[in-house]
Amino acid sequence: MQNLESSEVTLFREYLRIKTVHPTPDFEGSTKFLKRLADEHGFQFSVYECVKGKPIVILTWPGTDTSLPSLILNSHVDVVPVEEHRWKYDPFGAHKDEQGNIFGRGTQDMKSVGIQHIIAVGRLKKEGFKPLRTIHLVFVPDEETGGHQGMELFVETESFAKLNAAVVLDEGLASSDDIFTVFYGERSPWWVKMKATGPTGHGSRFIEDPAMERLIRVVNKLLTFRKQQFEELQRGIAECGMKLGDVTTVNLTMLKGGVTSDGKTFQLNVVPSEAEAGFDIRIPPTVNLEEFKKQLDEWTSSEGVTYEFIQNNMVNKASDISSDSKWWKLLKSTLENIGCKLDPQIFPAATDSRFIRNKNIPAFGFSPMNHTPTLLHDHNEFLNEKIFLKGVDIFCTLISALASAQ
C-alpha cells in the first residue's frame, strides 16, 4: 500500500507526524521540515521570531514583476491537544485505513492546507509556470492559542510590510456536502471574566445582596441574550439560510464561588464574599462593537459587578465580496469555472485572518475539503486522501489565477 501511495500523500502524512501540539510544539522539527521542502523546490527561505521560540517561516517564489503586491498563502503549524484514549489510532501516527482516510491531529486544521500550498506551488514551478506576482507561503506558530505571539505581532513589523500583500488565502472549514465554504470575515472573540463581591456570613441568615446573587443576575441577562440570538438563528435558517457566523454566540464557560481552605472542600454554611464567571462571546462584523460593550457595561455596572477582558478586539473588518471587489470576483470565477460550488460565509470562530483584514488586506478562508465531516479539534480527525489530492488540483488552478492577476 505504501509503495502505491502518491508521494504527495506521503509528504502530508510526514508533516502530520511532527508533533507540533500544544503546550510543547516541536517547532524545531517543523522548521527543519519546511526548510527541506524549500530547498527541494528552490524557494527562498526565511524565519522571523516576534517571540523567542515561536518561528514564523516564509517560503518565497519571486514573481516576474516584484513591484506588484504579492499573494500570501497562510497556514498555521501548531495543533490543539488530544485525548489519546478517545482516538481509534495514534493521533500523531498519520494512520491510513482501507478507505484512504488519514487520521491525525491537524489533518483538517490545518496541516493539509499548508502542505497543499507547498505541493501546488511546487507543481506549478516544475511545470514552467511563471507567476507575475511574488508568492509567499507563510507558516505561523500559535494560531491555536490566539495568534497573539504570532500573526498579531507579525502584521505590525517591517518584515510583514515588506511582503507587500495584495491578497491572502488562509484556513476554512470542511463541508459535508458538495459545496465549498469561503470565509470573508469572522466573529470577534471576546473572552470575559466577571467578578462580584459582597457581604459574607452564616449560611443560615438572609445575607443582603450577596456576591453570588449579584453575579447570577448578570449571568441571567447574558443567557437571556443568548436565547434571543439562538432563536434569531433558527428563524434565519428557515427564512433566508442564515449561518452560525451571522449571530452572536454567548457561552458561560466558567462559574466559581464558595469558601474553601484547601482548594477542594467547600464550606457550605458560609456565604462567599466573592464569585466569578467566565464567558466566551463571539460577535459578527455586522455588530457595532462599541455599542455591544456599552450594553455589557450596563448589565454589569447595574449589579455592581466588574469585568475584565482576557481577549477582545474592538476592530473587526470583513473582506469585500461585492461586485466591486476584483479579488473576490477573480477567486469566485476561477473556482466556479472548475466546477466548485461556493458558499461565502462569516467564519464562526477566529483565525489569524482577522489580524490581516484589520490591516485592510483582503483575506479569504478556504480549505478545499467537501464531502468531509467537520472534525477540527475533535477526536479521530481525518481527511480522505482523494479529497486531499483534489484539493491540491484546486489550489493549482486558484493560485495560478491569483498570482497572474494584472
How many structural domains in the coordinates?
2
- CATH homologous superfamily heading of the largest domain: Zn peptidases
CATH architecture heading of the largest domain: 3-Layer(aba) Sandwich
Output the number of helix runs.
Answer: 10
Which blocks of ≥5 consecutive residues have pLDDT under 50?
A: none
If you compute it from the alpha carbons, what radius of gyration comes out, rounded to the nearest whole angstrom?
24 Å
Write the layout of secondary structure elements.
Elements lengths: L6 H10 L10 H15 L2 E6 L5 E7 L8 E7 L18 E2 L4 E3 L7 H16 L8 E6 L10 H4 L3 H6 L1 E6 L8 E8 L1 E10 L3 E2 L8 H30 L8 E9 L12 E2 L2 E10 L5 H13 L4 E6 L14 H12 L3 E7 L5 H5 L5 E3 L16 E3 H19 L3
Parallel strand pairs: 3-6, 3-7, 7-16, 8-15
Antiparallel strand pairs: 1-2, 2-6, 4-5, 5-17, 9-13, 9-14, 10-12, 11-13
Structure, described:
The structure is a single chain. The protein has 406 residues and is of the alpha/beta class. The chain has 2 domains: 267 residues, 3-Layer(aba) Sandwich (Aminopeptidase), CATH 3.40.630.10; 124 residues, Alpha-Beta Plaits. Helix content is 32%, strand content 24%. Strands 1-2-6-3-7-16 form a 6-stranded mixed sheet. It has a 4-stranded antiparallel sheet with strand order 11-13-9-14, covered by helices on one side. The chain has a 3-stranded antiparallel sheet with strand order 4-5-17. α1 packs antiparallel against α3. The longest helix has 30 residues.
Short description:
The protein has 406 residues and is an alpha/beta fold. It has helices spanning 7-16, 27-41, 111-126, 151-154, 158-163, 211-240, 289-301, 326-337, 353-357, 385-403; strands at residues 44-49, 55-61, 70-76, 95-96, 101-103, 135-140, 165-170, 179-186, 188-197, 201-202, 249-257, 270-271, 274-283, 306-311, 341-347, 363-365, 382-384.
